[in-house]
Amino acid sequence: MRRMEVVFMGMTMTQKILAAHAGLDSVVAGQLIEANLDLVLANDITGPVAIHEVEKLNKKTVFDKDKIALVPDHFTPNKDIKSAEHCKCVREYAKSQGITNYFEVGQMGIEHALLPEKGLIVAGETCIGADSHTCTYGALGAFSTGVGSTDMGAGMITGQAWFKVPSAIKVVLTGSLNKWVSGKDVILHLIGTIGVDGALYRSLEFTGDGVASLSMDDRFAIANMAIEAGAKNGIFPVDDKTIAYMEEHSKKPYTIYEADEDAEYDETITIDLSTLEPTVAFPHLPENTKTVKEAGEVTIDQVVIGSCTNGRIEDMRVAAKVLEGRKVKDGIRCIVIPATQEIYLQAIEEGLTQTFIKAGAIVSTPTCGPCLGGHMGILAAGERAVSTTNRNFVGRMGHVESEVYLASPAVAAASAVTGKISEPSELGL
User: Fold this and answer.
1) What is the pTM of this model?
2) Distance CA 305, CA 316 (A)
3) Contact yes or no for 361/335 (Cβ under 8 A)
4) Residue 150 to residues 65, 76, 129, 320, 402: CA-CA distances in angstroms?
5) Domains in the chain, please, with CATH?
6) How confident is the model at residue 8 (pLDDT cuts 50, 70, 90)?
7) DSSP characters for 110-165?
């Protein structure tokens, strides 16, 4: 009888994390596994759905009150009666279960900026969240991905989730970014190259000497929009910057996983960071990218600077630097939304908030708000917005006949001054 030998290829970073959490020595792409979870997340939209499903089950308690995070951020502060009822549902469930990580108005922030800031997720961990941009935490070297509310609910009471192990695309970053170019431009360029389904159910694994030149805020922005390329997750290697961030924000132990040298990738994409320019995604898909120089004369009505993609302190600083001593053009509504209370406070202490207000912008409490057409900046028919958010689908920010152009904080701020899609160099910066 002929003996069959199973030869395991080397594993990617994502595959190693999943194998460890499944209690397996190795996994291969396409394999179905059940993995233990380190963090389960929901918000005021997805949380109530999960809670109502969980309440139908016999198991009435969560698997670990310290490993659940409930963050009402989408329609908060409550914009109407329905949103108030949703928040009430999450609030009462958190209280009944003794959930440690519940963040309400006054303590909350946009979930994907808040959780790393609070130190709730670190390298080597697994996280599912009933929000597609849960993939943000890959910036820390964690496996994190968005799931449906029922999957999240199951994870909340079992502490486990089923996964199909993803294959991977290797994204090699070289060089360093030029002035006024940021992580947002990197991910828009990548999505423009491979398309919104270019990484469908695959892991985007970032590597290369260019990674070291990226700030943590750049990495958060890039990992955040992995889902806009269809990816299961995006993930960065753990380096000195990652470790410094984790040690500043968290007391949790972390585990560093590195891809094997013989790890198998479906393809390799190389991006020379030094060649990138300020980039904009035109309606109605994140893949419809052009450089600002290619954009032509596109007049706008509104600018939004914020979101889980670009509401961090570096984003606030860049926007303020562009707006310093300048005025938002007459007829343009400029809305600035710091992603967390801590970032809001820091912006005040650094004088950034004063800069925004003197320029003619408004500054909002942390909220997802206009990103999903919630509140704080809904567009009417025929209106256009330049936004630092992550999606520009039809009707995403309001009326189906409105348009959203995705851009970096630098481009958004410059556009607020000129009233059209612009980059800072047009202001002499």
Assistant:
1) 0.94
2) 8
3) yes
4) 18, 23, 11, 41, 32
5) 13-271 (3.30.499.10), 279-427 (3.30.499.10)
6) low
7) -HHHHHHHTT---TT-EEEESSGGGGGGGGGT-EEEE--HHHHHHHHHHSEEEEEP
Which amino acid is located at 425 in the chain?
A: S
pLDDT digits (tens, 9 = 90+) for 236-292: 999 999 999 999 999 999 999 999 999 999 999 999 999 999 999 999 999 999 999
Q: Which two tokens stand for residue 326?
A: 């300048």
Q: Which ranges constitute the DSSP H helices of 177-332?
A: 183-194, 216-224, 240-249, 292-295, 307-310, 313-323
What is the rounded CA–CA span in Å between residue 301 and residue 428? 23
Nearest 5°: phi and psi at 379?
-90, 140
Q: How far is CA 67 from the centre of its chain?
A: 20
Question: What's the alpha-carbon Rg for the chain, to the nearest Å?
Answer: 21
CA-to-CA dists, residue 54 to 50, 58, 190, 419, angstroms: 6, 8, 38, 49
CA neighbor of 38 nearest in space, from 198, 252, 209, 234: 252
User: Using an 8 Å Cβ cutoff, are 257 and 141 in contact?
Assistant: yes
268: which strand partners?
A: 170
